[in-house]
Amino acid sequence: MSGWGFSRGRVNLAVLVLAAATAVGGFVASGLGTGTGEREYYAEQLRAAEIMQEATTAIKASRLASGIPIDRNLDPNETGLIGEEFTSITTSVGILEAKRTATNPDFAALIVRYFKEAGLGPGDVVAVGASGSFPSLILATLSAARALDLEPIIIYSVGASMYGATIPEFTFIDMLEAAREAGVIPYTLTAVSLGGEGDEGAGVLFEDGTEVMEAIAERAGVPVIREDSIAASIRKRLEVYEEHSRGRPIMCFVNVGGASANYGNTLASLEFPNGLVMRPPLLAAGPERGLVFEFAAAGIPVIHLLDVRGLALRNGIPVDPVPLPSLGEGRVYTTREYSRGRALAGLILSLGILAAGALGGGATGRGSAVRSPYG
């Protein structure tokens, strides 16, 4: 620091310690008694949560009108977003706690935060790839997109893990239609696939599973992705996203669930972080690495939604709450406030102590306890 008139050899060690302690004290004091405040995009977060809640209400009404009851033992908040444990389209193990946690509209607020942190604005195109494992998180994503006026391109896989969209007569295809008819969510699916093992409807628990999934996919009324390998399914999805973006850049990819084409079919997929990922810690190679890696390799932000419990705990969203909390009141809507004045005062005082120590040491000619090796 000799360029500023300071010399390490002229400042007493005690002065250095006092200056450092003062700077740290100023930082600590900046956070005392200031509490938390609403995020700058709180209004958009609240709007997204409201949209998700309105959509859930419409979906519940549609489900009951279709004669499909809600089991309160599985769905104590009666959202209508929880499916059955085993059906002909159940493809893998699922955790009921995670499915119920994900029905909280606070997740729509969280995804608004991710979209904002990724730098998205009105009119931006978002690619969405989702299995039926977490219909509530697809709804949260679309609610956030609606609140921010984004344009999602949605590819849905019919297969679902336990307690997801496992009811053949009421998959996310039907849920989205209910929300559209209610005027809450304006979006439509772009394409569907069967999902399950190999994205071919394989690996289901019942013999007629693939046949049922084929019928559901055809009922969606949109193109069905049928390829002979995961690698081909990944390539086809990229083509669909590119075609429907109509020359505009895709600004973000959202993966909901663990469909192989989206999440990947490699051990590296297990290392892909949940939440917003701007730069993944590693980039897998190979034709089956999944769209999370394909988009990340292209420098496009990825929002990965699979570990619901982890996402909830990190972002102040309650795990498996009954009843669901009021909108707009959780930690996901707030940010910690700091006093810039206190922090600045601590910094100025710290520099003052250093300056006084340097001048004092130089005036008296006394050496510092910390000696320069160069004398």
Brief sketch in words of this structure:
This protein is α/β, with parallel strands linked by helices and 375 residues long.
From N to C, what is the helix and strand string?
HEHEHHEHEEHEHEHEHEHEHEH
The global form is elongated
Mean pLDDT: 88
Low-confidence stretches: 1-6, 362-375
Structural class: alpha/beta
Query: Which percent range describes the beta-strand content?
Result: 5-15%
**Gap between N and C termini:** 15 Å
Largest sheet: 7 strands, mixed
Give the topology:
Elements: H1 13-30, E1 36-38, H2 42-65, E2 90-92, H3 96-101, H4 106-117, E3 125-130, H5 135-147, E4 151-157, E5 160-161, H6 172-181, E6 191-193, H7 209-219, E7 224-225, H8 230-245, E8 250-256, H9 260-263, E9 275-277, H10 291-297, E10 302-305, H11 308-314, E11 334-336, H12 340-364
Parallel strand pairs: 2-5, 3-4, 3-8, 4-6, 6-7, 8-10
Antiparallel strand pairs: 1-11, 9-10
